[in-house]
Design a protein that fits this description.
The protein is α/β, with parallel strands linked by helices. It is built from 11 helices and 11 strands. The strands form 2 sheets. It has an 8-stranded mixed β-sheet with strand order 4-7-6-5-8-9-11-10, with helices on both faces. A 3-stranded antiparallel β-sheet has the order 1-2-3, with no helix packed on it.
C-alpha cells in the first residue's frame, strides 16, 4: 500500500504542476532500441523468436476472392473466442453479426448453455464478470484504487507519465517499439491488452494494423469508460475488430488455447494474485502464443533495506499489491504457470518480460 500511495502522490503532484503552468511535461527521450536497457542478469536478455503461429487469415494471396474468404474465416474464428468465466464453455451470441466491434457491443447478449448464465454489453463494453445482485465481493485496495473515476481521469494526465520519473518506464510509444519483436509470432492474430486502464496500448495496437483483433480488458468500469471515450475521439482508430471487455484477470472469459498474444502493461504488481492471472493467461494462449508484460523490480540499493522481504509481505497483505525483489521472481512466476523462453530487459526499476506457451 505504501508503494501504491507513493505512486499516487507522485502522480497527483505531477498533474498539479501540469495544470498550473503552460509548460508541457514530456517523457524523457530514450534511444530507440535496447542500447539503454542493459540486462542485469543472464536471464535478462533480448530474444529473437522464430516461432510462428499459423492461422487461416495469414495466408498471402493475390486473389481478392481468397482474401475475403480468409477474412471471413478469421471473423468466424474470432467468434469462437469468448467463453464463460465459470465453466469456460463457449458463449453463444444472440446475433449472426460480427461481435467484435464497438458498435455491436451495446446490442450483445451472450449465453452459456452449460451454466445458463447470460452476459450483456452496455454502451461501452461487454461485461463478462461474475456479478451478483445480493452479494458484493470485497477487493483489495490496489484494485479498488483503479476503479475510482478520479484515477481514470488522471491516468493519462500525469499518472502514467510519473512512471518514467520514479521507475524508468520509457513511455507507451517506446515500450510498444520494444515489444514488437516479442510480438512477431502474433502478427495477424488476436491480442488482449490485459489491465488496459484507459487504453494507451490498446489504441497503439489498434492503430498499428498488426493484429486482426484487439481486446481491451480491465476490471474497472471507470477505466473502460475513459478508454471508450479516447477511442471515439481518435479518428485514426477503426472501431471494427476492437472490443472492450470487463473481466477478472483470474477468470478470463476466453476459450482455452484461443489467443495469440496477451500484453499486461504496468499491471502485474497490481493483481491480487499474479500467479492466478498468469496461469489464466497461459490457459488461453495458443501453443506458441506470447505473453509480454511490464512492471517494476525493487533491487539494487533497495536490497540492503533491513527486513525488506517480510516488509513486502506485510504491504502485500494490506494493499493487495506485489513488490518484486528480483527479475528471477518474475521468471519463476512464468515457469510455474507453464510458460517458457522467459526473457527480460531492464531500465532502472522498469522491467519488460516476455515468455511463450510451449508448442
Amino acid at each position: 500500500m505504501a508503494t501504491t500511495m507513493a505512486m499516487a502522490m507522485a502522480a497527483v503532484s505531477m498533474v498539479a504542476s501540469r495544470l498550473s503552468t503552460t509548460t508541457t511535461t514530456t517523457t524523457p527521450t530514450l534511444t530507440r532500441g535496447f542500447g539503454l536497457f542493459k540486462p542485469l542478469s543472464s536471464s535478462c536478455r533480448h530474444r529473437n523468436s522464430g516461432t510462428r503461429i499459423l492461422r487461416a487469415s495469414s495466408v498471402a494471396t493475390d486473389s481478392e476472392t481468397n482474401y475475403y474468404l480468409n477474412q471471413n474465416q478469421a471473423a468466424k474464428n474470432h467468434n469462437q473466442l469468448l467463453a464463460c468465466p465459470i465453466c469456460h464453455d463457449l458463449l453463444i451470441s444472440n446475433s449472426a453479426d460480427p461481435l467484435f466491434s464497438l458498435d455491436a457491443t451495446p446490442m450483445s447478449i451472450l449465453n452459456c448453455s452449460t451454466c445458463k448464465k447470460t452476459y450483456t454489453g452496455n454502451q461501452t463494453h461487454l461485461d463478462l464478470t461474475l456479478t451478483t445482485t445480493n452479494y458484493t465481493q470485497l477487493n483489495p485496495p490496489s484494485s479498488e484504487l483503479f476503479r475510482l473515476p478520479l484515477v481514470s481521469f488522471l491516468y493519462e494526465r500525469g499518472w502514467r507519465q510519473a512512471f518514467s520519473i520514479w521507475g524508468g518506464f520509457p513511455g507507451p510509444e517506446k515500450e510498444f517499439e520494444m515489444m514488437k519483436d516479442y510480438l512477431k509470432p502474433a502478427i495477424g492474430g488476436s491480442i488482449i491488452d490485459a489491465s488496459c486502464a484507459t487504453g494507451l496500448f490498446s489504441r497503439l495496437f489498434a492503430k498499428s494494423g498488426l493484429f486482426s483483433l484487439v481486446v481491451a480488458l480491465d476490471f474497472s468500469k471507470a477505466m473502460l469508460k475513459q478508454c471508450y471515450d479516447y477511442i471515439k475521439q481518435d479518428e485514426n482508430i477503426s472501431q471494427e475488430n476492437l472490443v472492450l471487455v470487463r473481466a477478472d484477470i483470474a477468470r478470463l472469459p476466453f476459450a482455452s488455447s484461443s489467443i495469440d498474444a496477451v500484453h499486461a502493461g504496468a499491471a502485474l504488481h497490481c493483481w491480487p494474485s499474479p500467479s492466478a492471472g498468469v496461469a489464466e493467461i497461459s490457459r488461453i494462449l495458443r501453443p506458441g502464443g506470447v505473453f509480454v508484460a511490464t512492471t517494476y523490480v525493487v533491487d539494487g540499493p533497495y536490497s540492503f533495506i533491513p527486513f525488506l522481504s517480510p516488509l513486502r509481505q506485510n504491504i502485500g497483505q494490506i494493499s493487495g499489491s506485489h513488490i518484486y525483489l528480483s527479475d528471477g521472481e518474475l521468471k519463476d512466476l512464468c515457469s510455474t504457470c507453464g510458460l517458457v523462453d522467459y526473457t527480460c530487459v531492464r531500465n532502472r526499476r522498469f522491467v519488460m518480460i516476455s515468455a511463450r506457451k510451449p508448442n
